[in-house]
Specification:
Length: 189
Amino acid sequence: MNYLIVGLGNIGDEYHETRHNIGFMVLDAWAKAANSTFELKRHALVASLKFKGRTVYLVKPTTFMNLSGKAVQYWLQETKIPISNLIVVTDDIALPFGTLRMRTQGSAGGHNGLTHIEQTVQTNQYVRLRMGVGSDFPKGKQAEYVLSPFSATEKETMEAVLQRAMEGIQAAITIGAERAMNTVNTKKA
């Protein structure tokens, strides 16, 4: 059985390692650990790897965040992976930094990337892993906050946060998202 793991973010050096790109960062960490490399393909940077007998496609859309659904739909069709085997990794300002929340369905919660995915694939019935990036910003400054780099303190624990996210995705692949949620949906380490 194959899986499509989509990390949300924005392309370009100016967005590298910003809060909005934490989805990209999780996929980068997994690709590095698996000695896999991303290649520029249609609508995305794509890497593939084997995990416990399954083929896993890691997809970082090259569209901007608000158009992520275009890449998701294309790669679901290209790989012939059912939507039930799609996992989307995204930032969430409603969660404290380091907190993870996995869900098998739900609303976009105001996240433009998730909104576009749901509009494009015409369902919200897919697994999403929301990664807390905090909400330490003044009113009206949300966009500046999510497009800013992590603090020095956050960077100190980033490796552990990315590792927990990767392990959560791996658990969803091997034991299913419903069971994986029991261990993933915890407070930060």
